[in-house]
Fold these 4 entries.
Entry 1:
Amino acid sequence: MSFKEEARLITNAAVQKYISVEDAIDIVEKTWTWFGNGEIIMPPKITTDMSSAGVNGWFNSMPNYIKPLDIAGIKVVGGYSDNKKLGMPFIKANVLLTDPHNGLLKALVCGDWISDMRTGAQPAIMAQRLAAKTDVVTIIGAGLQGYTSLLCMSKRLKMKKVYVCDLSEKARLDFISKFAGADFELVNCTDNEAACKDSDIIITVTTADADLVKASWVKEGCLVMTMGSFKEVEFDVVRQADVIAVDHIAQSLHRGNLKPLAELGEITEDSFDVEIGLLLAGKQTYVPDPKKRVYAQIVGMGCPDVAIAETARKRSEEDSTFNSFFDMQG
Ligand SMILES: NC(=O)c1ccc[n+]([C@@H]2O[C@H](COP(=O)([O-])OP(=O)(O)OC[C@H]3O[C@@H](n4cnc5c(N)ncnc54)[C@H](O)[C@@H]3O)[C@@H](O)[C@H]2O)c1
């Protein structure tokens, strides 16, 4: 028996030809809504930590099926600490798309831009729904995900001042230079406390495992969003929050800032007031309140990556100049 398995090889440049930043944000929002509506099958991601074998990295396997797009796929994304020395980003991602009905490979898609942009879209969408005010923002972690976060936030939110905090002076300056001409003020900041105390929104998106934000620095009405892979804020920031929000409840108990609190038994699956997909799908309600402190952990799901990759693949079908195919059975 013979059959054809002609897959597309979609490069990072091709992805950016077919998908704009605004498209990426819209697709993340739509995908979260589908997730809230129960239209996505997505087991929790699993991590392969290679450090005990002497490899300085880890990667997550993030499979899912998206019914409204009728596509199956897996995002494989890792953090590689030695990449910086080679001039490569810390995060590296790829997305594999398959036909859900027969398993044939449809495309191998470079996931770098997709992953970075979907990560940045997350706090933009969360803040639109959860923040009481968006005038003053602190970003702790002026790396790549910090950059895409502010880029996407600038497309969706009206901001006046952004404090840029990072251990590295170079990272802060490079970050600020990328927003030359922005219609908000950027402050090169070495004092997390002063920045946080003045902020309506605080985002941590670092590679640190540390208390970067103290509870006493978080004012009433502030939205704190943690996105890094480890602990980034004092336990009391979570304990003293009036509202706790996440992108995915099950994953949040095993990852990032909430992992140690879940291990202490202080955070359980009943602790969450908002799961963003349910809110977007209209199955929960939340009205931003200037008196409430909101804590949100965004660990990231694989379905937005698969949805963006599939949209790029479909758009490549409409492009008569696209010519990057490979025959898996040949
Ligand atoms: N939640 C998600 O969906 C998601 C997606 C991708 C990556 N991540 C995570 O986001 C984090 C950042 O990734 P990235 O690609 O931007 O990495 P990056 O290396 O480009 O940037 C990280 C920045 O954090 C800074 N930093 C480290 N320790 C610090 C500290 N103690 N105080 C202040 N700044 C500090 C570094 O100087 C660097 O500029 C990682 O933990 C990564 O695993 C999360």
Note: The chain is about 30% helix and 25% strand.
Entry 2:
Amino acid sequence: MRPVVDRDSAEWWKRVAGHEFVVQRCDSCGTLRFPARVYCHRCRTDRWHWEPVSPTGHVESWIVSHQPFLAGTSEPYVVVMVRLADAPGCVMYGNWCAEDPPVAGQPVEAVFSTVDEDLSLINWRPRE
Ligand SMILES: [Zn+2]
């Protein structure tokens, strides 16, 4: 099973495959935004560029999924929602990569998980 890539997210997935951690920055009002969209939700212009940001943030929330993501797996897994340190208006989701459960507000950093040459995923682990 692979993530569904659409028109707006295709370039972002390509950059993640190259282990780049980027969000969009509006060229008009400067808003950092994620997930990728053509138009800025603040000022509605369509001029923007990719901007590298720190691959760090804080745990905002999480779930423990008991629904297998891949056929043949049965272990429950944790998906965290992370508010980005450099872009507090943006949240990203990813698998939790630690033995201990996440804690609200916990500082975290991104971990690129390479699936194949065309696909990497962004997961999260506690920041030292
Ligand atoms: Zn804007």
Note: The two ends are 32 Å apart (CA to CA).
Entry 3:
Amino acid sequence: MTLTAVQARAYLHHLAIESSNPERLAKFYAVAMDMDAEQVSDTEWRAEGPRRHILAVKGKDKTLRFAGFAVKDSDSLAGLKAHVEAQGVEVLDSPSPYFETGAFALRDPDGNLICFGLAKPDKGHSKGRHGPVQHLTLASTDVRAMMEFYTGKLGFQLTDTVMDEGDEMKTFFSTSNHEHHTLACFQTSVQGIDHHSYEVGQWTHIRDFCDHWASNDIKIVWGPGRHGPGNNLFAFINDPDGNKIEISAELEVIHDRDAGVWPQAEKTLNLWGKGIIRT
Ligand SMILES: [Fe+2]
């Protein structure tokens, strides 16, 4: 039996981000995102909180080492693996320490390493602010190829696209479960990560995070606002390496609808005000 990413109920579980200074990066996440930072080797630190895990690994700043999507159960994992193999995608070993044996990985057209597996039990990070890591937004010079890979080869569901006046795709949003997007991608002149997001659920939790950041002298760089696609409320900060971190609430829950099309316009990015159009 083969299963798409949606049928496997995949959800973003963790990210491994390269940094020239993993200790500084992990300690920033510990403060900003209410996590615990721990050194695990000379080249790796981890920041962990309730339903959020960030690996900070020695390397090039603002570079994704890998992303980890967990699936519902072992049948889902086997079905998804069979699906991607049937699509001709090369299956690799997963490097993720957060997945049980049997996890696998693959590379998207830009070379991003995406892992799928069964999450190991959380190590007791049940306390702390609510805010599971929820979506990854990539940047690519060929967003259409990325859309075709994630929806066509992996079975993510396309939920919205942003098109410019020349009918060129500028952004796509896709999901692997009920959330409006778990994986999105912007067309840009450079490829890599655009941002990653934590879904706090309610507006008041965004307020609380903003107060928490203020008390730690961390400035908001964009927002609060509300995105068009996904209709989610948001606020953004930057980590010390320049990675963009989003706090989101009220992200649309997808039941059953066709993919929407939005114009490449400031209001698509922020219904309330200033939009940051990627170039
Ligand atoms: Fe986002």
Note: The first strand starts at residue 11 and ends at 19.
Entry 4:
Amino acid sequence: MIKSLIVIQIFLIIANCSVTSLKTNQIERGIPYIYQISDLDKNKSTPIKFYKFISADWEVAREGLINLNDPISKSNKLEKGTEKIQIYTYAIEHPLHGVYFIDSGVSVEFLGKEKPISGMIGSVMNIGKLKVLNTSRDIVSKNKFRVRGIFFTHMHMDHIMGVSDFMDDVQLITGPGENGKKSFVNSIIQGTNERLIGEDREINELVFNEKSNFFGLNAIDYFGDKSFIILYSPGHTVGSLAFLINSESGYQLILGDTCHTEFGWIHNVTPGEFTEDQQMNKVSLNSLQSLAKSIPGIQVHPGHQSLSQSVEKD
Ligand SMILES: [Zn+2]
């Protein structure tokens, strides 16, 4: 009896863990964005430079990346197996506000045989199949970036693996509630997450105005000039973000893991088992699909695969 009580107590303690125990600040930035249909036609924002880097090649379980129970997956005869994917990091360079990254890429710590994550997490993540192509340290130094902040599409481990390659004064910015979500899984990964991010770092969670609206999603015009719109797209995780960038090379839409794959985007199918809330993920994905359809020539970036040039979306 006493033994089972202790087990229950331990369970309650660890089941009550958040993504990290790092100090979290709520930050109000930019302007709540209420989309007008004329905005995109008459956009006079200063275009910003956009860079996409492939940090690593990787392979993970298809059933995590794509909802195989979706009728469209079934009609396409998609089955369990491994899917080739990549880890990306993006940089934006605003002429007035400087350089920010979206997701952190992969740090030099992942080059060696000994990875900075526990063996159990490494095997769950299939880390043996991770092939690092560009470390974040190399990306920053080759481009002479003076990085001010990193926005995270969300805080899953494959999106925070590069943080230690950035200076300590680089701000870490997430969506609402992303760092505080309490779950059993988080109790297992909390220590590794903190090791990857750094135990003395602080997380800044964006506050979205509920009246803001961009294709049904709450949105922030971050620099106040419509060049960089941050979209709150919950579902994959509670604080997932997507980003619309008016860049020198045209509009760019970063989906994060609201959609991991090319198949998911082309067929509007949500991710699979890696997603926390399928229904909410679907609502967010539908909004991003409508947004993309309204901007001719927009370039769309799923979380872990790039769309091939030949693919024409209906
Ligand atoms: Zn994810």
Note: The pocket of zinc ion is lined by residues 154, 156, 236, 257, 274 (CB under 6 Å).
